[in-house]
Amino acid sequence: MEGRFVINGIEKVLSFEPDATLLQALRDGGFSEVKRGCDTGECGACAVVLNGDLVTSCKVYAASVVGSEILTAKGLGTVQNPHPIQQAFVDAGAIQCGFCTPGMVMATYALLSKNPDPTDEEIRRALDGNKCRCTGYVKIFDAVRLAAERMRDHG
Ligand code: FES
Ligand code: FES
Question: pTM of the full predicted structure?
Answer without folding.
Answer: 0.97
